[in-house]
Design a protein that fits this description.
It comes from Paenibacillus nicotianae. By secondary structure, the protein is an alpha+beta fold. It has six helices and six strands, in the order αββαααββαββα. Helix 3 packs parallel to helix 5. The structure holds zinc ion (ZN).
């Protein structure tokens, strides 16, 4: 399952095949438009050079947390002051909202720019840490892919971002490796 903050992290894209191809999609206007649309966020596109630098350092910070959680660390590793600082840059109002049959209290940012997008990303990360299970955060087992995702399966055993792509590819690789061992050239 992709969440707002994992989708953001995965803008640092690696080809799941072993081509070694790597692309920072965050800098692409097409990625920025798609990301804002999918998560119903507003900011001007293209992001400025300074905004991109701030987004990239936030991505690095959250990616490092994801790695420490995958390695079994607890939420004690988190620098809450740093995250609070990012969220504190954006004033919000609370609003009762009745949308598609569900009633909820929502927090609406008073500004709509990349700073408020960053605050939303951080809030989503904080939500995962506080209300979800950080030990369900995974990094795809295909070492070429490195996709970060939240494992929401009942069995908690999801190893690949997608079974159809990375799962199948790794199955073929294991099969070939096994064959190679049995029949050395
Ligand atoms: Zn993958």
């Amino acid at each position: 399952m992709d969440t707002l903050w994992t989708d953001f992290i995965n803008s640092d894209w690696h080809d799941f095949r072993d081509s070694g191809k790597h692309e920072d999609r965050l800098v692409l206007t097409s990625w920025q438009h798609r990301f804002l649309k999918d998560w119903k966020l507003t900011a001007s596109v293209p992001a400025t050079e300074i905004e991109l630098q701030r987004l990239q350092s936030l991505r690095k910070l959250l990616h490092n947390y994801a790695i420490t959680f995958v390695n079994g660390s607890s939420a004690d590793q988190i620098d809450w002051d740093e995250l609070n600082k990012i969220m504190a840059q954006v004033p919000v109002i609370k609003q009762w909202n009745h949308h598609e049959g569900s009633r909820q209290l929502v927090y609406l940012p008073l500004t709509q720019d990349w700073t408020s997008v960053m605050a939303s990303i951080v809030s989503d990360f904080v939500y995962t840490v506080l209300d979800q299970d950080i030990h369900r955060i995974r990094i795809c087992d295909n070492p070429d892919c490195r996709w970060v995702f939240y494992d929401d399966t009942r069995s908690r055993t999801k190893r690949y971002c997608e079974d159809k792509t990375c799962g199948n590819l790794m199955k073929v690789r294991r099969f070939r490796a096994k064959k190679g061992l049995q029949h050395p050239q």
